[in-house]
Amino acid sequence: MAVGQQGQESGDTYGLELVLERLQRCLQGRLPRTEIELLLVCLRQVFENTDILYGLLLADLYYDVNQLANALSGCATDGDDSVYVGLKIVLQDIEALLERLAELAQLLLGSLQRVFCALDRSCSLYGANRVKRRLRQEGEDEEKTDILAALELAYIPDSTYYQWMQALRLLTTRFQYWQQCKQACGSFSIVFASKPLLHPLLTSIDITLNQLRETIQTLFGTVLPEFHTVPRGDDASLALHLLNLMQYVDLLLHQLNRLREAMQLMADQYTRLHNDLNRGNTVLTKP
Length: 287
Fold this sequence. Notes:
By secondary structure, this protein is mainly alpha-helical.
């Protein structure tokens, strides 16, 4: 692995860990440590598997899909399995990765639901009101007590403002890298659109891939960093952010299932193509 790539991955890890650290601080003391660890592990794994999908496997898939297109055009030699072995392998890798991502999304939803149920909004309201009463007793202006109470309850993270912005910049760089990798692959839709006998779902695979990437970018680049603004003990704000996170994870799961369906369909098309060509028929027939 190149030194530059190692440095980039190290930076990504730093940025992700700083964002997850803030989420962890919001949840500490509110639910079992094992539940927090499960949530953080799932989020890390979603990020890492997404990096593999967009940074590595899609390029391999596009190359092999072009081989499939050549076979459909009659450019492949009958019985030459080397044309298809690469596609079969990369499809298996992608299907396995998407299955892992779907399982992680399911675990995330379950964990977030348990976290949400564990919140006791009355406790944080009681804590804030207690601070306000003390501030009034100390002679503070009543109009300032809300702001002062919020500041006192807020948990200032160990990281400085510069470190926090650096973390977000590193994450943004990785998101841009995913987008560049997808663009460099070319368009699956163009390849499949020229093959009318293929299933229409395959022509929308680019849209599904872009939607999935955008959802994951929003999750890690916007939704999770918003926990940085939650004052310590403010369960009402925390609950709203958790609901938002749950909605995006649910959307992620829906998009993963659509992409899994498309990949399975592509694998089925590959199998029929392989069988047709082995029988000396270079035209893919409808099922």
